[in-house]
């Protein structure tokens, strides 16, 4: 199982709405994540907008590709893109660059 952690930056003026959107993620989006191998997926948001994402999956590249192939993900990413800083035209899911794990207590 791969453990994946990534960072993104939510715009300060959109923090409240970002939280609201994630309190009511579309059921079809939740199902797509589950169906494509995203497990134990969490998002943590700091008050300055730093977003830390964590998930576990058998194969992150395959899980990302499977999500990218879903119609619901395209709609979700289009709606979420304006919430983030410094994407430079990249979709939020494409900007999820995994951090290097340097320690894990099993």
Automatic annotation (TrEMBL):
<dbReference type="InterPro" id="IPR011008">
    <property type="entry name" value="Dimeric_a/b-barrel"/>
</dbReference>
<dbReference type="InterPro" id="IPR008000">
    <property type="entry name" value="Rham/fucose_mutarotase"/>
</dbReference>
<protein>
    <submittedName>
        <fullName>L-rhamnose mutarotase</fullName>
    </submittedName>
</protein>
<dbReference type="Pfam" id="PF05336">
    <property type="entry name" value="rhaM"/>
</dbReference>
